Amino acid sequence: MIIQALAFYLFAIVAVASGAMVISSRNPVHSVLFLILAFFNSAGLFVLLGAEFLAMILVVVYVGAVAVLFLFVVMMLDINFSEMREGFLQYLPIGGAIGLVLLAELVLIFGSWVVSPEAGEVAVSPTPPLGEMSNTAALGQLIYTDFIYLFQAAGLVLLVAMIGAIVLTLRKREGVKRQVIADQVSRRPGDVLEIKKVPSGSGG
Amino acid sequence: MTILTDIMAGLPEIFLAVAGMVLLMIGVFRREDSSKLVTYLAIFVFLVTAVLVLAGPSGQTIAFNALFVVDGFAVFAKILVLLGAALTLVLSVSYNQRERINRFEFPVLVVYAVLGMLMMVSASDLISLYLGVELQSLSLYVIAAFRRDAVRSSEAGLKYFVLGALSSGILLYGMSMVYGFAGTTSFENLATVFASNEGGGQPVGLVIGLVFIVAGLAFKVSAVPFHMWTPDVYEGAPTPVTAFFAVAPKIAAMVLFVRVMIGPFGALVEQWQQVIVFISLASMILGALAAINQTNIKRLMAYSSIGNMGYALVGLAAGNETGAQAVLLYLSIYLFMNTGAFACILAMRRNGRMVEGINELAGLSRTNPAMALALAVFMFSMAGIPPLAGFFGKLYVFLAAIEAGLFTLAVVGLLTSVVAAFYYLRIVKLMYFDEPADAFDRPGREISAILVGTGLVTLLFFMVLSPVLNGAEQAVRLFFSA
Question: Among A107, A108, A142, A167, which would you mutate to test the B interface (most chain B Cβ atoms within 10 Å of its Cβ)?
């Protein structure tokens, strides 16, 4: 038990600290690296909760794909971050005040949080006991059966995102030479080579 | 057997999704000049979907593990959405060709936006609601920026995207709070949980979650104070896209609003009624006052649509059967008025270039009397002059408000419609009494046809009033008895 508590505090503290570093470090590449650290620690927290599938997905998707994409964007786009930060101090007081008000409100709400007495009974797909089934298997059984509608709908959202990205960015450029493999393969020596007889002794 | 009932209930949506992919394939493989073909096919697809919607199961069918519901209410809204989308696609063909944005992805994105709207109006779970909203909005962001080489259009798309993402975040946050209280996202279960809690006072966390959900949905219908994006997006987006924005998504979002508030949150009517009353009042007032100073007709229509959503929200604020029925009637009328008005705006073209200033309409009655007459009919109707369609929309909405005892709302609604009448009638005055400007180019055949069609519907709506009212009543009765 004590090890679990220690692990929780370790993961939580590192996650919060790296979150703070993401927004405060000067170098954007460092920000992304701290973001990755935050993801890893959140994955650790998920493992402590017994949600190992979510933990792995977090690492695979967020660290493996999203964070690397961020790195690419940060490195490839020439964004002047110091310019973007100008006026940060100017807006700090009002931004901080709004943040504090929100924090106070959240504390008030969650301090008086109530869960409906019927909440357990109405759940559409209750979590199976941990001993019976791992939560990866439990999720797998639901996503493709009970929640097939949502799964397909999410797929359509991704399809639209893909179409949108192509519509807004793909440009046809004129005068670009493209490789046509069929042309290359069907080319015969006779089409491109011309054998010339050079009479001997007449060259310069 | 259950899978078969699921598929039968969702047949229109499944057909639309598959048809969208087929259209995409046709567009990709035909390469050049496929835009016109794909657009006409998309219109055909909408008509087939409408037939499938009408042929679907009658009564209330819950499918896909209680994520999806088909009832009269959804059917009524789906027909309106499909009709609005088909009409705007018809309007878009020649415009897109002239402006050289005739790419086949446009109708495909419209198909997916419409699919999202159908999923919204059929949602019976918070998660399916969110996915429907997201499918719809994502397609809309892209078509707002469809003229990607114009700064205005890209700006409209980006603004819409950023604010839309924010509102989706607010919506999700509210949903997570509601889920945290109730332990379920299904509308039916939410309703039972809240009903059992009635009288004991609703916990503050739940109420805040509800307010967040209302804010997210109010953004989607562009009600004040979540309306900031509307004028800029309407002005910047290509005109047929604006026509689409003003009609189909508004209808879908408003119907969804009614379904969520009266369905799962029915027991919390005391909590949400005051919020809806406020945003309705604010929308009506801002829609009336801010439009007065506009010189661009697309911006004017944006404020007009904010005001119109305010009137439709009056029906929701009433929170009873008459109110929901009045919302459906209002939306059906709004569909025809708005499509007609945008057909006029699309016909505002001089020497091959689109013009958008209100002053360009000066003296239209002498240069193009037919179009002036049509636009005058739409403007009189929006001002709510009897016996045109718009009058009946407002009449039933206000009747519902009075029945529910919301007298302030009805009185303010009447006053703001008087103020709004000023700017609608100013256009009529410009067209009939001012010195004529140069004539517009001749509008295309499809624009004229839509002008005549929507104009006749708006003018002679009193003849079809009772069947539409009956349809709305039946749609609502099933919804309330369930």
Answer: A167
SS3 B69: strand
| d(C-alpha B387, C-alpha B384), whole Å | 9
Surface-to-core class of residue B441, CB atoms within 10 Å of its CB (0-12 exposed, 13-18 middle, 19+ buried):
middle
Its ipTM equals 0.93
Which pair of tokens denotes residue A98? 């709004």
The total of structural domains in chain B comes to 1
Distance from CA of A164 to the nearest CA of B (A): 6
Which SS3 state, helix, strand or coil, does residue B374 take?
Answer: helix
Range of the domain at B215: 2-481
In the three-class reduction of DSSP (H, G, I as helix; E, B as strand; rest coil), residue A113 is classed as: coil
pLDDT of residue A73: 84
Burial of B288: CB neighbours in 10 Å, binned 0-12, 13-18, 19+: buried
Residues 132-151, chain B: which have Cβ within 8 Å of A?
132, 134-135, 138-139, 141-142, 145-146, 148
Alpha-carbon distance B144 to B159, whole Å?
10
Is there a contact between B182 and A116 if contact means CB atoms under 8 Å apart? yes
CB B132 within 8 A of CB B67: no
- Is the dihedral angle over the CA atoms B129, B279, B245, B320 positive or is it negative? positive
Q: Does any CB of chain A come closer than 8 Å to the CB of residue B181?
A: yes
Tally of CB atoms within 10 A around B304: 25
Angstrom distance (rounded) from CA B468 to CA B450: 20
Q: Which of B138, B136, B137, B142 is nearest to B154 (CA)?
A: B142
Nearest to B395 by CA among B468, B299, B330, B321: B330
pLDDT in tens, B182-239: 888 999 889 888 888 766 677 888 899 999 999 999 999 999 899 999 999 999 999 9
Q: Which residues, other chains included, contact B43 with Cβ-Cβ below 8 Å and sequence gap of 6+? A: B86, B89, B90
Degrees (nearest 5) of the Cα angle B179, B182, B186?
70
Residue A195 CB neighbour total at 10 angstroms: 6
Chain A contact present for B160, CB below 8 A? no
Q: What ranges in B99-150 are assigned the alpha helix state H?
A: 105-121, 126-144
